[in-house]
Amino acid sequence: MKKKIFVRESLLQIAIVVITFAMIIVRFLLNEKGRINPDSIRYMRFAHSLPVIDNTVTPAGYPMSIKLVSLLGTDEFWSSKVVGLLSFLFMLFFARKKNFFYRESIMVCGLFSFVSIFAYTMSEALILPFVFMFLYVSSQIIEEKISGRKAIFYLSISLILLYNIRYSALFFIGGCGLFGLMNWRKSYGKAFIISGAIGLAFVVLYKFLFIDYFNQNYVDEFLETGLHPTSQLLVELFQGLATTFNPFIHIQDPGGGKINYAIYGIGILNIGLMIWLFIKNKLSATDRFFIFTSMIGIVCSFFVQYFYSVNPLDYRLLAPFVLSVWLLYFRKIYQNFGQIAYTITFLSFASGLLFTWLSRGDYLQNRREITQYLQTEGIDNKRIIFYSDEEKTPEKIKVAELISTVNPEVYITKNPKDTLKKGVLTAHQVLTKIKMRRNQFQ
């Protein structure tokens, strides 16, 4: 009987992995511009220009991974999608190899929000498997399976790798140091304190030796106090958490409406169920570390908005910090309800597929259109200056995003006077000669 149950569950797991892989591909092919945003332009351009450093707004880890894949003969856009798929597969391979949250990883990666992340040309896709490895190393240290210099070395390397993919990994560094200080009397406290200090030292050196070398004005350009009022940030935090922890739909209706009440409501109910399960079931030291670093990441992500310009908090920005909570949540559900836990992922598949189909565009058709346009204009391999004011006309930046999937050397200008210069593209110029297949949601 036990053998039959094991076989049945293994088949469920194989089915979820196969469906997730297919869903990631469908997610970006049925999007009008292949699941990219304005930041994706910078990533692909950075990757295209390597080994020349294009900018320091983003760490080099993600662009380097795109560059490495592109050496196989694909362009930067398709390389970024391969990186997303490989990140998904590597995370599951590592989980199985180390016997670490393997069942839970399969269920979590199948959630529509994580499918969307792996399909996105953004660094969150790459950082997730590295966050998973960081959680594994941390658990080994807490459970005293790794100790001494070896523990400090592995944990420090994990933190440094995370920071080289996303600057927000600074919150993991701070969380590690603080966790160590709170447990300094325990055998593992010292490893977290020292590793946090090493990670922080790397951040300081990175700032002076890399960022300042290529862009001395970085701090002046990107740090500004009083960017948003607290009332606005609190509303965005509520919306971000409610959609992030909604296992079925992670995107609110931009036009508002009653549908958003349902989306937020499911997310809040799910958060309530998480809290209940965590209180009801005794948490180990590793479990508490997972929740602690997640909370530190969310809190720091909120407060950094007061002086650093970032998008409103959403499932994508919070994904690295909530991954540990999702893993722990699915473990508790499985411990209490058994294989019913898999139902959540299958329902997420259903809602995700429905959403993707209803909001479908046609990236491949749009790519053919823009490729023909760029070749006709003779700029398919040349530097392109594109005028777009994202704040006033956010729709027009989509044209630049689509262009970047074919020619990554796209530079955005927000100066209206530049439109008078020869060779500067505008959305109007392009859309008079091509027709984009649009979708409603991103």
Mean pLDDT: 90
Outline: globular
Element-by-element helix/strand order: HHHHHHHHHHHHHHHHHEHEEH
Biggest sheet, spatial arrangement of strands: 2-1-3
Q: How many helices?
A: 19
**Helix/sheet category:** mainly alpha
Q: What distance separates the N and C termini?
A: 46 Å
Low-confidence stretches: none
> In percent, how much strand structure appears in the residues?
under 5%
Rg for CA atoms: 22 Å
Structure description:
Helix 7 (124-142) packs antiparallel against helix 8 (148-163). Helix content is 66%, strand content 2%. The N and C termini lie far apart (46 Å). The protein has two domains: 2-358, no CATH class; 363-431. The chain is built from 19 helices and three strands. The protein has 442 residues and is mostly helical. A three-stranded parallel sheet has the order 2-1-3.
State the main characteristics.
442 residues; mainly alpha; 2 domains; 19 helices; 66% helix; 2% strand
In short:
The protein has 442 residues and is mainly alpha-helical. The protein has 19 helices and three strands.
Topology:
Layout lengths: L1 H28 L8 H12 L11 H10 L5 H23 L3 H8 L2 H8 L4 H19 L5 H16 L6 H13 L6 H26 L3 H5 L7 H15 L14 H22 L4 H19 L11 H23 L3 H18 L4 H15 L6 E4 L9 H8 L5 E4 L10 E2 L1 H5 L11
Parallel strand pairs: 1-2, 1-3
